[in-house]
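Support case: D-glutamic acid complex. Customer-provided input:
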Amino acid sequence: MGPIGVFDSGYGGLSVFKEIAKELPQYDYIYLGDNARVPYGVRSYETVYHYTLECVNQLFAKGCRLVILACNTASAKALRTIQQNDLPKLKELHRVLGVIRPTAEIVNEFSETGNVGILATPGTVSSLSYVIEINKFFPQVKVFQEACPMWVPLVENNEYESPGADYFVKKHVDNLMKKSPAIDTVILACTHYPLLLNKIKQFLPGGVKIISQGAIIAKSLSDYLVRHPEIEELCSKVGTRTFFTTDSTENFDKHAAIFLGSQVKSQFLKLDHYKYPL
Ligand code: DGL
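Agent response - structure generated as follows:
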């Protein structure tokens, strides 16, 4: 038995972790933010896969048997390969789940026009993961995507409420709505974006629904654990929360308090590349 691992490239996954821990408070959790190497959204498949696998292995080494990739970019670019190539090599049962499929499968609960907008990192957009997954469930739904390369840096650098953020938020919201004025539902398909919610609302036309993933992923995990008792029984239930970052713990604690609305004390996680100083 071990904690449930929650992984993100940085702080964004905390918006998912917060909802998971609220929905399923009885479990132990380890959150890992790869803050030293954020952002993932502009990096190649190879790099995102390599970074994600390394972090997932670190969570496994800490006893996690189930890991949630609370990062759309990692879910888009690394999840399938990890599930198909890496997990079968392990002697014991381990599972890694992502955030794209659970979001895609409930799109119909929100959209009436069948025109859905995706705001995401360049990596998630170019992977076409949302287009493919939504069309698997709802072939009639039209999916329009807009990559927002500056939004993760705005959040990571605490600029998400600044007047400077208005320019980048407006630019991408306008670009998305130009692709189809019939869009009635917009998915914040990056776990960093809920922090930009107020600004996104300000620039989207009234009446367009905005979907954040946290509660969706929490509900989907809860259902998953009911459907998979063999995994559920591997998840320890003392109620502990442990936070690791691959960068400054001081910075992590400051930002995490903003995401979570409560104080945390993180620990530094040393990655392999520290073995090879330049
Ligand atoms: N939270 C990650 C996501 O959902 C951020 C990606 C990044 O590191 O650029 O895609």
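The pocket of D-glutamic acid is lined by residues 8-10, 12, 38-41, 71-73, 121, 124, 152, 190-192 (CB under 6 Å).

Case will auto-close in a few days if no follow-up is received.
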